Amino acid sequence: MMIRRPSARLAALVAAAAVLAGCENMDERSRGTATGAAIGALGGAVLSKATGGKAGTGAVVGGVVGAVGGNLWSKRMEDKRRAMEQATAGTGIDVARTQDNELKVNVPSDLSFAVGRADLQPSLRPVLDQFARGLDQTMHVRIVGHTDSTGSDAINDPLSLARARTVRDYLEDRGVPAARLEIAGRGAREPVADNNTDAGRSKNRRVEIFLTESPQAR
């Protein structure tokens, strides 16, 4: 009786599944690396087999490439995410990693600006202090202001930009170079909740701060 060995493609499938199953207990950076490796291994095996090459070799090459591609979240960024989570715990500020590997800090209206105002609430200052701490020349900051739908674009657009500018100026005062700070005002054009309710409008009045690391620094 002849025992057939499992194909390299099947082996790649099993290995990929095992790696992905183990991702649950990993941190953000390791999860990105492992997931990229698994997807790369599977894709490499399938492509190599389809084009007449060795599936096993394709899986190895694909895994290496995938691991590099998946690890776009550096230890520096993970450390910053954890520090911001600790600094904002219990405040209602949301800290998350975006799909395109930015660190996003979402600050709701009750912690950022009073209705119709662009001057900083005192409660936001410690958060911005923590955000500014440890930023180096490899990191770029994008600040986006938003409003609810109350009022016209002629009011909301400059108000949202003024709020972003206030945050930028505060970070500059804390030593972040102006060249690494970008601002934008979206007015009421990007709501995250229903503007027909008080709770929804409160969520829409917000400031989002995005932190990106240059590829060379990863």
Structural description of this entry:
This protein has 218 residues and is an alpha+beta fold. The chain has two domains: 8-70, no CATH class; 75-217, 2-Layer Sandwich (60s Ribosomal Protein L30, Chain: A). It is built from eight helices and five strands, in the order ααααββααβαβαβ. It has helices at residues 8-21, 28-50, 55-70, 75-88, 109-112, 125-132, 153-173, 198-204, and strands at residues 94-97, 103-108, 139-145, 181-185, 206-213. Helix 1 packs antiparallel against helix 2. It is globular.
Q: Which structural traits does this protein have?
A:
8 helices, alpha+beta, globular, 2 domains, 5 strands, 218 residues, five-stranded mixed beta sheet, 60s Ribosomal Protein L30, Chain: A
Beta percentage is 5-15%
> Rg, please?
23 Å
Largest sheet, described in full? Answer: 5 strands, mixed
In helices, the fraction of residues equals 40-55%
The structural domain count equals 2
Low-confidence runs of at least 5 consecutive residues: 59-71
Tell me, rounded to a whole number, the average pLDDT. 78
Strand order within the widest sheet?
1-2-5-3-4
Specify the overall morphology.
Answer: globular
CATH first level of the largest domain = Alpha Beta
Total DSSP helices: 8
Succession of helices and strands: HHHHEEHHEHEHE
- Report the structural category: alpha+beta
CATH superfamily of the largest domain: OmpA-like domain
CATH arch. level architecture of the largest domain: 2-Layer Sandwich
Cα end-to-end separation: 53 Å
Q: What's the count of strands? A: 5
The CATH topology of the largest domain comes to 60s Ribosomal Protein L30, Chain: A
